[in-house]
Each structure stands twice: as C-alpha cells, then as structure tokens.
Write a structure and sequence with these properties.
11 helices, Arc Repressor Mutant, subunit A, three-stranded mixed sheet, 3 domains, GMP Synthetase, Chain A, domain 3, 8 strands, Sufe protein. Chain: A, alpha+beta
C-alpha cells in the first residue's frame, strides 16, 4: 500500500478548483480514458499576463486528482512566464511528496500546463519529437531519454513510474532498457547536474545553515542573528546582541554570514541587514 502525505489526502478528499474556466485563455488536455489517466486544465489570464483562475477535470487515481488540484493552486496569481517554470517536481513538493509509483501523475500535470500555455500563446500543437517507443501510452524515445537524464532513472519500473512508458503490454521493455543503458552509459563519470533550489528548499537550507553553522559562532562572542525574510536571492537578517552594536558588524555580515551562506546554500545569495 502506498504512503500518502496528509496534503495529498487533503487535496484528494477536498480538491480545489474543480471544473472548467469559462472563456478560458489557455486549455491543455493530456492522457486518455483508455490509459487510465486523463487531465484537462484551463486557465484565465488578465491584461497584465497574470493567471487569475485555473480549473481542472481529471479521470484518475487519488494522486492524479491531488496533483491537478495542487497545480491549479500553484498557478493562480502567477504570470504565464512564471507558470512556465513550474515542473512536476514543484507539484510533488507542494504535496509533500508522492510515492515513486505515482510520480507520473505530477508529470501529467506539467504536460497539461505546457499544452495550456501553448494554447494561450496560439502556438500550434506539434507532434511529439522522436520516435514512439511505447505504443500503449504514446511515449517517444526522446521523452524516455529526458526522463532518464533529468531524474537519474535506472530501471524500466522507474520509467513507468515517471512517464508510464512500459506500463501496458510490455512489448517496448527491451527498447526502453536499451535507452536506459545507453543514456546512463554516456553519463558515467559525469557528476549529476544539481537542480535549482525551489524557494521552499532555499529558505529551509538558509534556516538550517544559520542555526547549525552561523549562530553558534556569533553566540560565542555574545552576538546572534535572526532571519527576517528571503526574497529571491536576497537574504534579510537582523544582527542581535553584541553584533548589533559592533563597529565591525558589516564585515561580519559580508565576510562571514554571506560567505557561509554562499558556500553552503547558493553562491548567488546576497545578505542585507534590516533597517533599524
């Protein structure tokens, strides 16, 4: 039995934004009733290019419903350009994680979003690039290659979990395995490319670094530091104790606090002290 997070259960039992947006600016449909999963996403965009409403209709399991519900929550309030940056990993993270066997539900959400944005921009729907490997679910060799590369997948089961390829008749298993072996062989001795941190991951890592690495050092000299805000790569803090009145506070802020966060979290971070 799969273990679902409380947030997955909540979005399954009480899904948000069910239905279809009237006079939608963007509509995307993926999957089919025959393959057991189908999703229709629609959204409305205001004059500033910001998504004001998003709704979904889906046929699928609890994870499919929860993923589609989460996707609409993530979309509302974002510009189309911001929405374009959303991936299936953002959907899964928003839900507190998905069982590996259900990651394809979040991928379906990402694909529906891509089609809806293409519809909004008036871009004609194009045939999937590459050659179809899995006839049951219409998955191409390039899609399989991308999944292996992006998620370091190692088995046919992994592929099925992410993009459903190989989950039907099984005739494509040999070809899928060949692609896995070829792609992973080309990646041998190459370090895994780190994924950009999401805002939630970044904030959590900053908090952990402050508590574990920075605060103890400052407290040894009677000082302290408090995290006030994180805005993109801008980290706003407040120095406390002796650090607040120290003439060298700006040196401490830049040469120690900022350098440590850049080393352990992200090199793009800039630390600023809150106005008094």
């Amino acid at each position: 039995m799969w273990e679902y997070t409380d947030k997955v259960k909540e979005h399954f039992l009480n899904p948000r934004n069910v239905g279809e947006v009237e006079n939608a600016d963007g509509v995307g449909e993926v999957g089919s009733m025959a393959c057991g999963d189908a999703l229709k996403l629609s959204f409305k965009v205001d004059d500033n290019g910001r998504i004001t409403d998003a709704k979904f209709k889906t046929f699928g399991c609890a994870s499919a419903i929860a993923s589609a519900s989460a996707l609409t929550e993530l979309l509302i309030g974002k510009t189309v350009e911001e929405a374009e940056q959303l991936t299936n990993d953002h959907i899964a993270e928003y839900l507190g994680g998905l069982p590996k066997e259900k990651m394809h539900c979040s991928v379906m959400g990402q694909e529906a979003l891509e089609k809806a944005i293409a519809c909004y921009r008036g871009t004609p729907e194009q045939k999937k690039p590459g050659n179809v490997v899995c006839e049951c679910f219409g998955v191409t060799d390039l899609q399989i290659e991308s999944a292996v590369t992006d998620h370091r997948l190692k088995s046919i089961e992994d592929i099925t979990n992410y993009i459903k390829a190989g989950g039907g008749c099984g005739k494509c298993h040999d070809t899928i395995q060949e692609i896995i072996d070829r792609v992973n062989g080309a990646m041998v001795d190459q370090p895994a490319k780190p994924k950009p941190l999401t805002n939630i991951q970044k904030i959590k890592l900053i908090e952990e670094t402050l508590e574990r690495e920075i605060k103890p050092a400052l407290m040894q000299d009677g000082g302290d530091i408090q995290l006030i805000d994180v805005d993109g790569n801008r980290v706003v803090v407040k120095l406390k104790g002796r650090c607040a009145s120290c003439a060298m506070s700006q040196i401490t802020l830049k040469d120690y606090v900022e350098s440590k966060l850049q080393e352990l979290v992200a090199k793009e971070l800039v630390v600023e002290e809150v106005d008094a």
